[in-house]
């Protein structure tokens, strides 16, 4: 994802920009989509009306929920789906020479004006088997959309879910910062991860490009290299710093910092914790504070956290305080984070008490260093004083699970339901064009998602409905919903006059996602042995699935 391509599609007075990444074009697909498209065209089947469901079979990370993401990029692709002459020339070269010229003329005029897309709102909490997208349209163009749509949703939903899981373990009160760009799978992986981690509940990113593209708040301070680049305070040339309100100026901020480090060393309450601190580190902190007095945050583990980093930070923060500035805090990037954060908090508290600086004891503490769900959980159990987490590698690479496993299955053609069978029941598809609903109970929690046939009456509040497991006849339950929410809405009506849902801004999607996650029952969300959320079908759809299954499955013969 490099930059936004120029908007080129105007629908109903609304411009739909192209995909964020210019690599996302109709060519971003598998070769077999083109070979199938040609075979459809050759058999004169290419215009037959088909319905495909895009869904996944199992929640990731051993959990029982998933966050749906990537819808906006899908709509951007669909709205701007058009082959260039260069595209068609390359496709011609890539297919066997026996392919007829008429097929390439067909591709030349192809767009998604006859396609309709129904989807669950981006940022929703979703579950296996329930369609995330329903694509309706001519079978050839729908087939060409399969690979890019799966690609755009698979990683987006996986990393958004990973972010949501980290948020759940960290808790609402902690600030979560995504620091994964340098470890991500290439530029596209880095940009996508930043966007969808924010959607999943993170507060900010270090990724400047993502900040520009998506309006995500940016956070960052300095590295160990900045600290070790200084040798002594003598390197600081401009030592003056104006006060926060502009009313006065300190001509020698370096001397002010040195005065404070001496005071801290002589403090009764802090005596014995440290001796002489590293002066090159003190110089680096001082220089950084001169550059950023309103947002001074120091990385304190370059040499020794408690014997040098924390005292040096406090000296600079107290010198800033004399001029009306409030330091932002520290970052710990190594060592025993639980212990060091607690010791740092004690040190800050002692400074507040010793020198009468209100609020100093609440100085911000950020932790980084290859954090993941397990380390956050361990920190919670040990007890810590961390306010913010900077999380990178394990978050953006989805180290715990490589892929979500989205699939794209034909469920209807020419109004005839189709089913995909397998000896593995989890891979049997649910046929026909369906409607999906979320049923809520008395306490406001979602109880079950139910799929029905397109023409079945909708579930109604207060009316008892039988919910059946799609494949296990013994699993069934009656539900009397207190609220019914239809999940699939039209996000691309093609050339039809159906009303179309707007694509909300990223921040609104994030807010909606957080609210949905908070509305889930806690036992579905917990890390250890979460309760599976129920996904069901109506009694009528259950009967039809099994009728079609028996009708399509070949009957064996014993000899």
TrEMBL record:
<dbReference type="InterPro" id="IPR013785">
    <property type="entry name" value="Aldolase_TIM"/>
</dbReference>
<keyword id="KW-0808">Transferase</keyword>
<dbReference type="InterPro" id="IPR036068">
    <property type="entry name" value="Nicotinate_pribotase-like_C"/>
</dbReference>
<protein>
    <recommendedName>
        <fullName>Nicotinate phosphoribosyltransferase</fullName>
        <ecNumber>6.3.4.21</ecNumber>
    </recommendedName>
</protein>
<keyword id="KW-0662">Pyridine nucleotide biosynthesis</keyword>
<dbReference type="GO" id="GO:0046872">
    <property type="term" value="F:metal ion binding"/>
</dbReference>
<keyword id="KW-0479">Metal-binding</keyword>
<dbReference type="InterPro" id="IPR006405">
    <property type="entry name" value="Nic_PRibTrfase_pncB"/>
</dbReference>
<dbReference type="InterPro" id="IPR040727">
    <property type="entry name" value="NAPRTase_N"/>
</dbReference>
<keyword id="KW-0460">Magnesium</keyword>
<keyword id="KW-0436">Ligase</keyword>
<dbReference type="InterPro" id="IPR007229">
    <property type="entry name" value="Nic_PRibTrfase-Fam"/>
</dbReference>
<comment type="function">
    <text>Catalyzes the first step in the biosynthesis of NAD from nicotinic acid, the ATP-dependent synthesis of beta-nicotinate D-ribonucleotide from nicotinate and 5-phospho-D-ribose 1-phosphate. Helps prevent cellular oxidative stress via its role in NAD biosynthesis.</text>
</comment>
<dbReference type="InterPro" id="IPR041619">
    <property type="entry name" value="NAPRTase_C"/>
</dbReference>
<dbReference type="GO" id="GO:0034355">
    <property type="term" value="P:NAD+ biosynthetic process via the salvage pathway"/>
</dbReference>
<feature type="domain" description="Nicotinate phosphoribosyltransferase N-terminal">
    <location>
        <begin position="27"/>
        <end position="154"/>
    </location>
</feature>
<comment type="pathway">
    <text>Cofactor biosynthesis; NAD(+) biosynthesis; nicotinate D-ribonucleotide from nicotinate: step 1/1.</text>
</comment>
<keyword id="KW-0328">Glycosyltransferase</keyword>
<keyword id="KW-0464">Manganese</keyword>
<dbReference type="GO" id="GO:0016757">
    <property type="term" value="F:glycosyltransferase activity"/>
</dbReference>
<dbReference type="GO" id="GO:0005829">
    <property type="term" value="C:cytosol"/>
</dbReference>
<feature type="domain" description="Nicotinate phosphoribosyltransferase C-terminal">
    <location>
        <begin position="433"/>
        <end position="544"/>
    </location>
</feature>
<comment type="similarity">
    <text>Belongs to the NAPRTase family.</text>
</comment>
<dbReference type="Pfam" id="PF17956">
    <property type="entry name" value="NAPRTase_C"/>
</dbReference>
<dbReference type="GO" id="GO:0004516">
    <property type="term" value="F:nicotinate phosphoribosyltransferase activity"/>
</dbReference>
<keyword id="KW-0597">Phosphoprotein</keyword>
<dbReference type="Pfam" id="PF17767">
    <property type="entry name" value="NAPRTase_N"/>
</dbReference>
């Amino acid at each position: 994802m490099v930059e936004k391509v120029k908007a080129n599609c105007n629908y109903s007075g609304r411009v739909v920009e192209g995909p964020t990444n210019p690599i996302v074009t109709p060519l971003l697909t598998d070769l077999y989509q083109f070979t199938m498209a040609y075979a459809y065209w050759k058999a004169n089947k290419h215009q037959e009306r088909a319905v495909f469901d895009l869904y996944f079979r199992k929640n990731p990370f051993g959990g029982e929920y998933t966050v749906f993401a990537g819808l906006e990029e899908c709509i951007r692709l669909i709205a701007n789906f058009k082959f260039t002459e260069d595209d068609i020339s390359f496709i011609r070269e890539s297919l066997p020479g026996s392919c007829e010229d008429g097929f390439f003329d067909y591709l030349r005029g192809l767009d998604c004006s006859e396609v309709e897309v129904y989807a669950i709102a981006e940022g929703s909490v979703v579950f296996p088997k329930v369609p995330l997208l329903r694509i309706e349209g001519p079978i050839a163009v729908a087939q060409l959309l399969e690979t890019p749509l799966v690609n755009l949703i698979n990683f987006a939903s996986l990393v958004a879910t990973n972010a949501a899981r980290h948020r759940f373990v960290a808790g609402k009160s902690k600030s979560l910062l995504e620091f994964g760009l340098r470890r991500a799978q290439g530029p596209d992986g880095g940009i996508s991860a930043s966007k969808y981690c924010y959607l999943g509940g993170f507060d900010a990113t270090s990724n400047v490009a993502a900040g520009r593209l998506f309006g995500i708040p940016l956070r960052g301070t300095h590295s160990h290299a900045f600290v070790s680049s200084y040798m002594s305070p003598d390197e600081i040339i401009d030592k003056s710093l104006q006060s926060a309100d502009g009313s006065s100026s300190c001509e020698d901020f370096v001397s002010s910092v040195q005065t404070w480090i001496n005071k801290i060393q002589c403090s009764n309450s802090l005596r014995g914790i440290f001796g002489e601190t590293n002066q090159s580190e003190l110089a680096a902190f001082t220089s950084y504070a001169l550059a950023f007095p309103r947002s001074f945050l120091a990385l304190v583990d370059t040499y020794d956290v408690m014997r040098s980093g924390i005292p040096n930070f406090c000296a600079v923060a107290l010198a800033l305080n004399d001029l009306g500035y409030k330091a932002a805090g520290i970052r710990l990037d190594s060592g025993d984070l639980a212990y060091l954060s607690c010791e740092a908090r004690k040190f800050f508290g002692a400074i507040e008490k010793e020198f009468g600086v209100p609020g100093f004891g609440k100085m911000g503490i950020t932790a980084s260093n290859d954090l993941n769900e397990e380390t956050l959980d361990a920190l919670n159990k040990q007890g810590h004083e961390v306010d913010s987490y900077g999380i990178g590698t394990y978050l953006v690479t989805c180290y715990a699970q490589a892929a979500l496993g989205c699939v794209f299955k034909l469920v209807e053609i020419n109004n005839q339901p189709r089913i995909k069978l397998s000896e593995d029941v989890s891979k049997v598809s649910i046929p026909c064009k369906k409607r999906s609903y979320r049923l809520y109970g008395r306490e406001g929690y979602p109880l079950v998602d139910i799929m029905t046939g397109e023409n079945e009456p909708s579930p109604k509040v207060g009316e008892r409905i039988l919910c059946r497991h799609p494949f296990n006849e013994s699993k069934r339950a009656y539900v009397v919903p207190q609220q019914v929410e239809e999940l699939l809405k039209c996000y691309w009506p093609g050339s039809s006059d159906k009303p179309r849902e707007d694509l909300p801004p990223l921040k609104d999607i994030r807010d909606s996602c957080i609210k949905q996650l908070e509305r889930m029952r806690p036992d579905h969300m917990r890390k250890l042995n979460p309760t599976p959320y129920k996904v069901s079908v109506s009694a009528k759809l259950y009967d039809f699935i099994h009728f079609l299954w028996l009708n399509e499955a070949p009957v064996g013969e014993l000899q």
